[in-house]
Structure formats: structure tokens, C-alpha cells
Design brief:
The chain has about 190 residues and is α/β, with parallel strands linked by helices. The protein has helices at about 1-15, 20-25, 25-40, 45-70, 175-180; strands at about 70, 75-80, 85, 90, 95-100, 105, 110, 120-125, 130, 135, 140, 145, 150-155, 160-165, 170-175. Helix 1 (about 1-15) packs antiparallel against helix 3 (about 25-40) and helix 3 (about 25-40) runs antiparallel to helix 4 (about 45-70).
Length: about 190
């Protein structure tokens, strides 16, 4: 828990934030509360920690959701180095998987296609999700992909691609290192 949160803080420092601004950032509070919740809810945790921790975590998480409109569900898997640029409007389904060093802008939804549907998005490493983007269904967003603001993503996004629109379509594609190794170079 602490190693992952330390990596989250490192991303904010790399982003240019001072320690003071990080400490006052509500998005960082939500990330911390998510990491603490994952630690509390981990199977095999001491019964006293779980017994006292679960109700406290749920109560504070509910208040955070009401005040900051951010829901980082403890059942979602989020890799280290998460950066949420602006507080507010983040909703993650419990089945969501987010890789390392991902960026989420505000008003992002990662969830299922509808009530009773199964399957939620899986994001690779170094993925950027823009403001008001909605990713729904059992889709895979590859490493290094970028989702533009106000996009609706309901299909897989290849690694290194930039998508935008409703529904989102590829507007740019960067070659990945493994593709560059196999590419012929003409002089």
C-alpha cells in the first residue's frame, strides 16, 4: 500500500506539484483512501483491523463521494503511479483494472455497458484518459494509448493509439518499440 502510494506521490512531483499543493489536493486524498481501503480489505488481514477498518473506510469513502464526486472502488485494481489531474466526477466500476502510471482527467467514467451487464475496461500502462471520457464494456486500452476529452470508447484501443469522438475512432497511432525493432529502415 505505502509503496504504491509513494509512486502516486512521485507522479504528482514529476507533474510539478509542490508538497504543499499535493497535501491540499482532494484527488490525492481519494487515491490515499483507495490505497488504504485495498490494504484494509485484503484477505487475511487481522480481524480487528478489518472489523474496525471496513465501517470507517466505507463511511469516509461515502462522504468523499458525496463531497468530491469521486468513487475509487476498492475492488478495482489500480497500479502504482495514478495521477488524477483535477478532482471530481471520477467513477470506477469494481471490475476495472488500471495499469501503472495512468492519468485520469476529471469527469471520467469507467464501467459496464448498463445495469446487469458484465465486463469493465482494462487499461494498460501509461494510458491517458481525457475530461468527460466514458469507457464502457469489456474493452482493452493498450499501453500508451490516449483517449481524448468527451469521447465514448466501447471498443478496444490499440497500444499507442489516440482515439476521439462518439463513438471513439483512432485519429493517430504511434509505433510501439517492439514494432520499431521489426520495421525496415529506408535510406
Amino acid at each position: 500500500m505505502f509503496a504504491e502510494f509513494k509512486e502516486d506521490l512521485k507522479r504528482y512531483r514529476e507533474f510539478g506539484e509542490s508538497y504543499r499543493r499535493i497535501a491540499l489536493n482532494p484527488a490525492v486524498w481519494c487515491i490515499f483512501w483507495y490505497r488504504l481501503g485495498r490494504w484494509i480489505y485484503r484477505p487475511g488481514r487481522n480481524l480487528l483491523v478489518r472489523g474496525l477498518g471496513k465501517p470507517l473506510h466505507l463511511a469516509v469513502a461515502t462522504v468523499m463521494e458525496a463531497l468530491m464526486q469521486m468513487r475509487l472502488n476498492v475492488r478495482a485494481e489500480i497500479g502504482p503511479g495514478l495521477l488524477i489531474a483535477h478532482c471530481g466526477g471520477i467513477t470506477l466500476h469494481p471490475e476495472v483494472v488500471i495499469g501503472k502510471h495512468c492519468d485520469l482527467a476529471h469527469h471520467v467514467t469507467l464501467g459496464t455497458r448498463g445495469v446487469g451487464s458484465v465486463g469493465a475496461p482494462r487499461l494498460g500502462d501509461n494510458v491517458y484518459i481525457g475530461t468527460n471520457a466514458v469507457l464502457i464494456g469489456p474493452i482493452l486500452v493498450g499501453d500508451g494509448a490516449r483517449v481524448a476529452a468527451n469521447s465514448l470508447v466501447n471498443r478496444d484501443v490499440p497500444a499507442g493509439a489516440t482515439v476521439m469522438g462518439v463513438p471513439a475512432a483512432i485519429v493517430k497511432r504511434r509505433m510501439q518499440p517492439e514494432e520499431m525493432a521489426g520495421a525496415e529502415v529506408s535510406v
